[in-house]
Amino acid sequence: MGMGNREKLLEAARQCLFDKGYERTTVRDLASAAGVSMAAIGYHFGSKEALLNQALFEALDSGGRAFGPSEGDGDLGALWRRLIEAFSAHQTFWVANLETVLRAQRDPELREQMAAGMRQGRSGMAREVTGAAEADLSEATVRTLGSVQLALVSGLMMQHLTDPESAPSADEVLAGLRALAAYLPAQEGGA
């Protein structure tokens, strides 16, 4: 059985995010790529923005094309190389991600969707680093390791989008993390 119009629109929106980015994608682009009428966007999603947001969240949630195939083995070097390659190979997608973060500051519903995505992203990043199944990760691991990894990914993404020639390589990220660890204060109490 073939895809329905809703699924066709989501697939078309994902493709447009990778090819054109968020701001440059038009209703006509989406309808044409899906092979449906422009009215189908309003019927199934309410607006172009709602469709693009859902497609973006699904692409981020599934990883796949956005991040490249996951080894899930806890190899940080491989993870950073894969992420850096994804930032370069799918630049318009990552710019669309940043555009969505900015729009969320003016849209409470989108902001809550982004916040939920961040919570899920922390868990996914902790899984990528440890190689453990998400269900086996403690809340503390997700809040600490997952949060820091997600912050590093976000910062590295912005560097690679803005100044790819000067942005650090995977090996430089790892060397920087080792150097940073040398400056951490001794752990006190339960902190």
Would you give an account of this structure?
By secondary structure, the chain is mainly α. Helix content is 71%, strand content 0%. Helix 1 packs across helix 2, helix 4 packs parallel to helix 8 and helix 6 crosses helix 10.
Please state the CA-atom Rg, rounded to the nearest Å: 18 Å
Strand content: under 5%
Number of helices: 10
Mean pLDDT: 88
The end-to-end span amounts to: 54 Å
Work out the number of β strands.
0
SSE arrangement, N to C: HHHHHHHHHH
Structural class: mainly alpha
Low-confidence stretches: none
Specify the overall morphology. Answer: elongated
Major sheet description? none
- Helicity, in percent? over 70%
Topology readout:
Blueprint: H1 5-19, H2 27-34, H3 39-45, H4 48-62, H5 64-67, H6 76-89, H7 91-104, H8 108-130, H9 139-162, H10 170-181
Question: Can I get a quick summary?
Answer:
The protein has 191 residues and is mostly helical. The protein has helices spanning 5-19, 27-34, 39-45, 48-62, 64-67, 76-89, 91-104, 108-130, 139-162, 170-181. It is built from 10 helices and no strands.
Label this structure with key terms.
191 residues, mainly alpha, 10 helices, elongated
